[in-house]
Queue: 2 jobs
Job 1
Amino acid sequence: MRIDIVTIFPEFFSVLDVSLLGKARQAGRIGLGVHDLRDYAYDRHRTVDDTPYGGGAGMVMRPEPWGDAVDSILYASEARGVTEPVIIFPSPAGELFTQAMAQEFATERQLIFGCGRYEGIDQRVVDYASTRARVRLVSMGDYVLNGGEIATMAMIEAIGRLIPGVVGNPASLVEESHSDGLLEYPSYTKPAAWRGLEVPPVLLSGNHGAIAAWRREQQLERTRRVRPDLLPPAV
Ligand SMILES: Nc1ncccc1[N+](=O)[O-]
């Protein structure tokens, strides 16, 4: 998979050189391009924002630098034979990011992330990009960040770890929260007793059927208690 990021803070993404994603990049499983939006702002001060039409507080990101940045990335995509990649604009006005979306995006050949700042990006950038790529506005939750960089980092981690070969043991991806729609069961390791707290005896029984049943019940109980909205109908 190829990932391109447009941002005014390219240094934000140096963290993607480490850990699993760093190894995936070294192994060639993920290609990463971080593009500084200011490289596409050709005035002397490399301005990327301006005051909003219609008034109001804050600044809006100008369309020209975005248009040139998107065109430059799409031109390179076409040269690599990728037509209509997905462009993701993190936005509190977007559709809520879920594990299902992470799974969906993990099958794409290329993802482009457009990190807005200030009060957002001129709407015409989204409208223009939609004529040349599959555009998705995606939200990490009902709260407001100062820009799309942290949201992009979270999505890249959630998506990247699903790409075959990135996570050492693919089996570990199966029994996780949200992988089967429910929250995961509690986990324990040695010692069996710690500060007067015991590991549930069933986990020491060696009875795999009883262990699987206990874990499923724990998932349901935890999901009922913490996230009843995730419960499948008639549970
Ligand atoms: N919540 C957000 N606030 C600002 C930018 C992006 C956001 N998001 O969730 O993707």
Note: The chain has two domains: 2-168, 171-230.
Job 2
Amino acid sequence: MLNPAVPSCSGTPEPGQPTRRRARGTGWQLKGSTGCSHQLAQSESPGHRHFSCHPGCCPFSIWKLLGITRNVPSILDLGNGSNTLLCVLVSSREEEKVRTLSLKASQQQGEPPLENGFLPYLGCALKFGANPLEFLKEKQKKHGHIFTCHVAGKYIHFLTDPFSYHALMRQGKHLDWKKFHFATSAKAFGHGSIDPAEGNTTENFHQTFIRTLQGNALDALIEAMMENLQYVMLQSRAPKLQSNTWVTEGLYTFCCQVMFESGFLTLFGKEFNSNNDKNLSSKQETERAHILNALENFKEFDKIFPALVAGLPIHLFKSAHSAREKLGEALLHKNLLKRDNLSELVTLRMFLNDTLSTFDDMEKAKTHVAVLWASQANTIPATFWTLFYLLKSPEAMRAATKEVQNVLETAEESISLDGKHISLNRKQLDNMPILDSIIKEAMRLSSASMTFRVAKEDFTLHLENDFYNIRKDDVVALYPQLLHFDPEIYADPLTFKYDRFLNEKGEEKTDFYRNGRKLKYYYMPFGTGIAKCPGRLFAVHEIKQFLALIFSYFEIELVDSNVKCPSLDQSRAGLGILQPSNDIDFRYRMKCL
Ligand code: HEM
């Protein structure tokens, strides 16, 4: 792994003058501000091809440092303590770009201000990757509400004014949201293209998700999840909970196991048939071992997910590759068919895979791995942050437990350990505004999702008071963490306030302001517009169910009540809810009921 002291071309740019620009359609040109416009020298060693400017211009041979070699990727460790990995694959196509490096320029008229960054090909990628929020805040200060960043070969126009967000939604005619999702999914999960235009399938995935995660389908998911959470918390973890003694565990580890196991059972059903089965308990144990094994594979694969999105091939990561294949094996249709209580989502997806696609068995299975990942990767950290903030805030904990007690009482649900499970339906769970506010606040503080749209053609982006030319294939992006941490919208934005999303009546608060104007977009962990997460309602219900059951059955506390809030692991910035950079010890024991 390289740990570069980032080099630059000798000589500094002329003040106020960007040193590079895109010549439409011709790739990159570079000019050192000393006036050099050199041909890049090329040298070959077995398996590698190095490019370098002449020694006086690029003393550290940036090309070599970045490992620009034929089909050999580089991983750059920023060494800034943030665990950030930025991965760049430089293929022969990029080599062509590098070959044409030689000159200078600036943004074209009518385009947003351009930040090229100092690194050829990478542009601003390293700085952006190290801390996107700080980077974008700095550029916002410098350029205003819209600017363009060159990031790893792409031009990304960031809209930072929340009053401009609707411009992105409105101009769907010129902007594509699907291509990026389709390409990312195929790259990360290893199935063939799911873009109907490419002929492997005619399934409309978006419609499948809406149909099976919302409306009536959601009721069934909620019911199954309630049952599974109790099975996992009480029966499956029974050996740990034998006596009335405290169990100490990492909070993230706990949330991860409970949510993964329950969520997996809810979507992919159970191996065992629970009715009148003499060997039930040994079958349950085997099933649990399989799911925990799937969790290990999930974690191994999930670790390198940002690298896959950045374009690195999975073959570089042997154990993650093998983990993804094992997840695929487990979700082969022939194995799913042996399970009871498959969700409507999985049943319908299997049917559509079989009837509308030409995927082979493993590709079909990998489309299920994609669903498994989408259903868990954000939910697990969101559950952790919610419970962590509750444990840190006695006032929030009191309000939340009281709300749950009231709802249980109204529903005439009693809490016991005699095997009768608590049941709360969707309507009852919807009647918990305090939990809603707590979950929202925890996600506001931990979410770093990014909304992307790709320009289908050259067009003019109309914002509130101005307009900008956007070129075909450029990306227009929103980074809502800017909005979530804006002190004008959220006073004291880094502080957890459990009732931030409640109004004076104790109902959901929806009026948030900036510059005295009411905002339409103020909370976006689930994205927005057409591509908004189709599983968002289920996700919030899952977390509420988890909390309601924790409060009902367990006493729970932090091992160190003064423990500091863990920092956000920035390596997943742009992908959703960030994980904590370290786990936090907590303890729990069964209540004496
Ligand atoms: C706290 C939990 C969750 C968060 C924060 C979250 C967030 C997101 C975000 C930001 C997107 C991308 C939206 C965009 O591109 O603009 C997304 C997509 C998606 N999410 Fe979630 N999600 C969560 C839970 C879930 C759950 C539980 C499921 C399913 C059971 C799910 C299923 C999906 C699917 C299938 C997509 C892709 C949609 C498409 O491409 O049509 N998500 N999610």
Note: The pocket of protoporphyrin IX containing FE is lined by residues 181, 205-206, 209, 213, 374-375, 378-379, 382, 449, 451, 525-527, 531-535, 538-539, 576-577 (CB under 6 Å).
